[in-house]
Specification:
The complex is a heterodimer. Chain A is an alpha/beta fold. Chain A contains six helices and 15 strands. Chain A starts with a strand and ends with a helix. In chain B, helix 5 packs across helix 6 and helix 7 runs parallel beside helix 10. The chains are: A alpha/beta, B alpha/beta. Chains A and B meet through strand 4, helix 3, helix 4, strand 9 and strand 10 of A and helix 1, helix 5, helix 6, strand 11 and strand 13 of B. The structure holds flavin-adenine dinucleotide (FAD) (2 copies). One flavin-adenine dinucleotide (FAD) sits at the interface of chains B and A.
């Protein structure tokens, strides 16, 4: 089975701090990582391949430095990686991003399953996966925590707000995965060494026959007009005294607010 | 769009480079240089003390925006009842519609859901479109997207609002591509720019560390998914009248490519996290999986749901569906009680908009206290049982 995994390189938010004086995001020296959900997507792809044979191709749209993320995918065991990169793609919203990725997938041609993460931890929209499915006219199931396939169809478990569903879908199809779907493998030193030596394929807008007016900022219907850091909540009241008195005080407050 | 650094004004102070959320501004010869990957977010423009950075926007061609009127709400249904977010959005749509003098249309999909039309009118809809058909009985992307796209093409609303639920986010993303319009995700603020008649959509990104205001200036409808429990449900007025339209779906069962084999609802008695008014969360501080029973008891007593930190989920102490945070669920209950949770930034991302946060932790320096409305520094194995006892007492259960 041929599987395409879409990954995004994101800043490691564990290291993001808010400057207490200026109340702005400090990203100095913050390392880039593969979006955590996408690591699970790669793992799932590798497991399907290990069971059914086939090929795992990982693609990302991003600046040249996204190459490092793709090398980690090779180290995990991906067969092929493609960097979709062009100045024309800069500033893309999810409409333009999913268009660009779908053009790259069309160029790859053959696939049974496309996997994406539930959402990217920077943009946080969860819109790119479904967007790609729409451009390619594929069925989709989002937020899955389990996937089984016989090569013709897949049976997946989808998280809902009030439980979950077991869903059957004919392939080819696109799925977005939750963290709970698997436990990703560690990178081996050998894998890392091998990945270092590989040439990374880079596709430009022309290579994927992307129409310029649908790419990047130009092709994006949404515009970010302002960004700001939210006002912090601020420290509240820390009760003092014996535990039992603190508990009584707390319950009194909650009663006053008619919560208890 | 182009971003330009004025070499005359730039002093090489590095402030922009430190502030850039994408870390792509480098210093070369004491001059800022914007690298690849710029999203034109404007953080550096505002940060620069010397006004040395400017973004030049392209002039864009206007499409016929005047052909689009009214505000459409996707009235999400669960078990033949409105999800709360549907009523929140109808109320918000009513408010905006009064401001810009237009109408509200609510679309309801499902089977045997005719009774919901009146309810939608009573909360402020002027028109209700019902699709009562087996093909849309349960949510399936293909069927719902087809029906919604047809209705939007026909009704031409200028704004379309959908709940940012696991159904709404799946659906909205496909509709927006088909309609070739912008979609702002998971909004927590909606305001009108009255002069330009444009919806200003504010949303958290970077796990809640950055807020962005987003517009869709040249495409219609302006689409947004809106986070549940943010907008307030308005007053119900049973005497409100309006138009009710029954339509047939433009898709048949054979065209739907996914089949639901089984629907498993949450265990009886378990409250859905996202809808819960009260959440009691256990972190690694509870030490053992069995001790979740203490958290469950507290939650049960308050009629709330049980949340968990990622550390406890990763340790296998509780199912991942309970995880609160950046890679779990985003919640905003009236009361959030965190027991033995340190308050890592990724945990805060999922709960810091709760009305009241109570932190119970033995470490007075734990970051959770920085967002807590009320804090108790102490061993949770002393505090929580005492709290349970006290609540039982005031509830007259003891
Ligand atoms: C502050 C801010 C707010 C924004 N808000 C919006 C908004 O409301 N609406 C909007 O349309 N755009 C928005 N954008 C733009 C958006 O972040 C970009 O379009 C981004 O390229 C993709 O969106 P995402 O990060 O939300 O990814 P998501 O849609 O959350 O990503 C889901 C999955 O899609 C795949 N994927 C995502 N990006 C790529 C990629 N570049 N290459 C390969 N696979 C990928 C991954 O598998 C990922 O796990 C915003 C940008 C910023 C900076
Ligand atoms: C990309 C990424 C995404 C993440 N997403 C999430 C997410 O969605 N949700 C999430 O929760 N985390 C997430 N994390 C993990 C996060 O960084 C923290 O590791 C995690 O939240 C810690 O969980 P904890 O507070 O339970 O454990 P700890 O940090 O170990 O804290 C335990 C706390 O319990 C206190 N304690 C111990 N014993 C007692 C006692 N007897 N009485 C009272 N207090 C006691 C301690 O003082 C301590 O503060 C993410 C991390 C990354 C890198």
């Amino acid at each position: 089975m041929d599987i395409i995994v879409c990954i995004k390189q994101v800043p490691d938010t564990t290291n993001i701090r808010i400057d207490p004086v200026t109340n702005t995001l400090v990203r100095d020296g913050v390392p880039s990582i593969i979006n955590p959900f996408d690591v699970n997507a790669i793992e799932e792809a590798l497991r399907i391949k290990e069971k059914h044979g086939g090929k795992v191709t990982v693609i990302t749209m991003g600046p040249p430095q996204a190459e490092t993320a793709l090398r980690d995918c090779l180290a995990m065991g991906a067969d092929d990686v493609i960097l979709v990169s062009d100045r024309k793609f800069a500033g893309a919203d999810t409409w333009a991003t999913s268009y660009t990725l779908s053009q790259a997938i069309k160029k790859i041609g053959k696939f049974d399953i496309i996997l994406a993460g539930k959402q990217a931890i920077d943009g946080d929209t969860a819109q790119v996966g479904p967007g790609i499915a729409e451009w390619l006219d594929l069925p989709q199931v989002t937020y899955i925590r389990k996937l089984e396939t016989d090569g013709q169809k897949a049976i997946v478990e989808r998280m809902m707000d009030d439980g979950y569903e077991s869903i059957e879908v004919r392939l080819p199809a696109l799925f977005t995965v939750l963290k709970g779907i698997n436990e990703p493998r560690m990178l081996s030193l050998k894998g890392k060494m091998m990945a270092k030596k590989r040439e990374i394929t880079v596709w430009s807008a022309d290579d994927i026959e992307a129409e310029e007016h649908k790419c990047g900022l130009k092709g994006s219907p949404t515009k970010v007009v302002r960004t700001f850091t939210p006002t912090p909540r601020g420290r509240g009241e820390i009760f003092q005294g014996e535990i039992i008195d603190q508990v009584k005080e707390l319950v009194k407050r909650l009663q006053e607010m008619k919560i208890v | 769009m182009e971003i330009i650094i004025d070499a005359e004004k730039c002093t090489g102070c590095t402030i922009c480079s430190k502030r850039c959320p994408f870390a792509i501004i480098k210093m070369e010869n004491r001059l800022a240089v914007i690298g690849q990957g710029c999203t034109f977010c404007g953080v550096c423009v505002e940060a620069c003390p010397f006004s040395a950075i400017t973004i030049y926007k392209d002039q864009e061609k206007h499409v016929d925006l005047s052909a689009y009127k009214g505000i459409m709400v996707f009235g999400e249904v669960r078990d033949k009842k409105f999800a709360n977010v549907a009523l929140e959005l109808i109320s918000k749509a009513r408010e905006i519609a009064d401001q810009i003098k237009t109408h509200v249309i609510t679309v309801i999909l499902g089977e045997k859901i005719n009774h919901l039309a009146k309810e939608a009118l009573s909360y402020g809809s002027d028109k209700v479109i019902l699709i009562d058909d087996p093909v849309v009985k349960d949510f399936r992307t293909d069927a719902y997207a087809r029906v919604m796209v047809d209705i939007i093409r026909d009704q031409k609303p200028e704004i379309a609002l959908i709940g940012a639920t696991s159904i709404g986010r799946d659906l909205a993303a496909r509709i927006a591509i088909q309609l070739h319009t912008g979609l702002t995700a998971d909004c927590t603020g909606l305001d009108m720019d009255m002069e330009r008649r444009i919806l200003l959509q504010t949303r958290p990104a970077f796990g809640g560390n950055l807020m962005a205001t987003i517009e869709t200036p040249y495409h219609r409808p302006q689409m947004a998914t809106v986070r549940p429990k943010v907008m307030k449900i308005g007053k119900r007025d049973e005497s409100r009248k309006g138009e009710i339209l029954n339509l047939k779906p433009g898709i048949t069962e054979e065209k739907v490519r996914t089949k639901i084999r089984e629907i498993i609802k949450q265990e009886q008695g378990e409250v859905n996290l996202e809808e819960a008014e009260i959440i009691c969360t256990g972190g690694r501080g509870i030490h053992k999986p069995e001790n979740f029973s203490l958290i469950r008891e507290l939650a049960g007593l308050l009629g709330g749901a049980v949340g968990a930190s990622r550390a406890t989920v990763d340790a296998g102490w509780i199912d991942a569906s309970h995880q609160v945070g950046q890679t779990g669920k985003t919640v905003a209950p009236k009361l959030y009680i965190a027991c033995g949770v340190s308050g890592a930034i990724q945990h805060l991302a999922g709960m810091q908009t709760s009305d009241i946060i109570v932190a119970i932790n033995k470490d007075a320096d734990a970051p959770i206290f920085n967002v807590a409305t009320y804090g108790i520094v102490g061993d949770l194995f002393d505090v929580v049982p005492a709290l349970i006892k006290e609540i039982k007492k005031v509830k007259g259960l003891e």
